[in-house]
Amino acid sequence: MNTCVSPHQHAKFPLTGLVPQELAEFFVSIGEPQYRALQLFKRLYTSQQLSFETITEFPIALRQRLADLAHLYTLTLTKLQQSYDGTIKFLFHLHDARSIETVLIPSEILGNNGTPKRRTLCVSTQVGCSLNCKFCATASLKMKRNLSAGEIIEQFLLAQQHVREPITNLVFMGMGEPMLNYDNVMRAVEILTHPATKLLGSRRITLSTAGIIDGIYRMADERRTIKLALSLHATTDDVRTMLMPINKKYNLRELGNAVEYYYRKTGIPVTYEYILLDGINDRDDDARRLQRLTRRVPSKVNLIPFHPIDFTNPQGIAAQLRPTPPQRFYAFHSRLRELGVTVMVRSSSGKDIHAACGQLALSNLSSGIAAY
Ligand code: SF4
Questions:
Q1: pLDDT tens across 140-149, in order?
Q2: What is the Cα gyration radius of the chain?
Q3: What's domain 104-353's architecture?
C-alpha cells in the first residue's frame, strides 16, 4: 500500500502506479465517489496518450479538477534511437531532472503477419545502480534513487505509444537491481497483470537479479508467478566476486540454495545469464562447473557476448575485460550442449546504439525524437 495517497501534499499528484484501492482513496480524499477509481484505472492502462480532457466518462468539472491536482504521466520521452536491427532505445527524463533508458528488442523470429513474433521491453528499475558489476555500464552512474511503480509502468506505456505492434514481453533487466526496489517492482507487476488492464501475462515478465537472495526467497514465499533470471557470469566465488562484488555477501552456494528453494515453491524454471569474457570464465573447467551449478533445478543458460563499455571510461578490472573470441564462444556453447545443458545464445541487439545487454549508461543525452 502506498503510504502517501493524498493530493494535498504535492503540487501535482502522480496517479500512474496506484492500484485500484489507492485510486479509490484518492477520489474519496477529494470528495468524489469511489467508483471513479476503476474507471480511471482502466482508462489509464488501456488508452493511448490519455489526457484528463479525453476521459469523457468524467464530468467536465471533475476533469478540470483532476488536471489541477494530479499528473497522469511524469516521464518525458526526450530521445529515441533505432538500431539497424530494429532495437529502439528510449531516453526518458524524470520529474527531478534525472534520466533513465529503456530498450525495446524485436525478436529475430517473425510471426505469421511478417512482423517480429515478440517485442520485449527491457525496463529500468533504479536511476543508476549500487552493485558495481564490472562488465556493466550502468555501474558507472552509481546509485541515485529507486524508481516509483508509476515510473516503471510509464516506461511500458510510453514505449507502447511509439511502436505500432503490441509489446509482448517485459524484462526487469535495464538500469538498476530490481530486487533492491522490490515493492515498487512488484506493484508494477500487479498493475501490468491486473485483470482490468490485461497488459501482460505474468509468464511474459522476467525479473533478472545479480543475486540478491533475500528477494529470491521473498518471491518464492509470495509465490510470484513471474519468471526469475539470475546473472551468474562466473563459476567460482573468486571470479564472481571479482566481477560482481555482491558475491561477497551472497556467494554461489547460498545462491544455489535460494534458487532451489524458489523452484520448489513455484515450479518455475530459472534462467541463468552468463557473459563470456576472454580468459576469465570461458574455459572447459567453467563449462563443467556451470553444468553442475545449473543442474540443481530445471533451467536454461543464456550465453551473452560481452559488449564493450569503453565509453564509460572504465577503471581497473573493468578496463581489462574483453569478449571471448567467436570461435571459443561457440566451442563453449557446444561443450555445454554436450554436457546436457539447455543453452541459448543471446543476440547483441542494439549494440550500435549502446542498447545491448550491459550498455545502459545515458551515453548520449542530447534529444531527438522521430516516429517509428
Ligand atoms: S549488471 Fe545490473 S546489478 Fe550489476 S551494476 Fe549493472 S544494473 Fe546493477
A1: 889 999 999 9
A2: 21
A3: Alpha-Beta Barrel (3.20)
